[in-house]
Amino acid sequence: MKEKNKNTLTKAMAKFVTGLAAETAAEVAIEAYKNEKKKDAESSHDRRFQNTKLLLKNYRNFVEYRGNAVYETMQVMDRSQVIYEIMSNSPVDNYTVESIKKNVAITHTMLEHIDEMLEVYKKRCNRSPKAEVRRRWRVVESRYLSESEKTEEEIAEIEFVSVRTVQYDLEKAYDELSELFFGIDFNNMLQ
Questions:
Q1: 21, 55, 79, 91: least buried by Cβ within 10 Å?
Q2: CA 63, CA 110: separation in Å to the nearest integer?
Q3: Domain segments of the chain: what residues?
Q4: What would the DSSP string read from start to end of the chain?
Q5: Dist. CA 178–CA 140, nearest whole Å
Q6: For the stretch 83-103, what's the b/e string if a residue is b when 16 or more beta carbons lie within 10 angstroms of its beta carbon?
Q7: CB hemisphere CA count around 43 (13 angstroms)
């Protein structure tokens, strides 16, 4: 009789332990999924952030290229073709005259968008009641957009702030401009 109770108790314990193991495994899997989504969101943010920095860093080169390109945007292709080319990301014919035409069109279209978003950002900053937000625009403009690029040290001197404050302003601007350049990532926002 004692042996029968031992088996019954063991089966009940096994069932209980199995249930706990399944529940724990599910919790671990859910946590792993959440962590993976968080990493994806951070990676996406990092890419957009870095791309924004690259766009600003190379802005003067893009403007010079646009100003000196042989082809005008509309001579090359219409907007729907430009968008298709950007989205297809095809390496075919990268070194032909056609690819040069496409790159001119893509650069023109990209700069139109960037210029428009920079204007939106400028207005947003200049309307702010906060002096540091208005300064942020001046810092971006001095660093990347004006005819002569200024160093962070020169900007700090002009603005009567520390170099670290200029760096902070730029970091904040990269975040804000990333949303304007690339749109808001609603998936990350909803998490």
A1: 91
A2: 11
A3: 2-189
A4: -HHHHHHHHHHHHHHHHHHHHHHHHHHHHHHHHHHHHHHHHHHHHHHHHHHHHHHHHTHHHHHHHHHH-SS-HHHH--HHHHHHHHHH---TTTTSHHHHHHHHHHHHHHHHHHHHHHHHHHHHHHH-S-HHHHHHHHHHIIIIISSS---HHHHHHHHTS-HHHHHHHHHHHHHHHHHHHH---HHHHT-
A5: 13
A6: eebeeeeeeeeeeeeeeebbb
A7: 6
What pLDDT score does 120 carry? 96
Nearest one of 120, 130, 136, 127 to 173, comparing CA atoms: 136
In this predicted model, what pLDDT tens digit does every residue of 45-104 receive, in sequence order?
A: 678 889 889 989 988 888 887 777 655 544 555 555 655 665 565 555 445 556 666 777
pLDDT digits (tens, 9 = 90+) for 3-30: 555 555 566 666 666 766 666 766 666 6
Task: Output the CA–CA distances (angstroms, integers) from residue 165 to 51, 91, 160, in the order listed.
Answer: 22, 42, 10
Encoded tokens for 138:
């001046």
Other beta carbons within 10 Å of 33: 10
Q: Which two tokens stand for residue 117?
A: 């978003």
Spatial contact of 73 and 109, defined as CB atoms under 8 Å apart: yes
Distance CA 12, CA 18 (A): 10
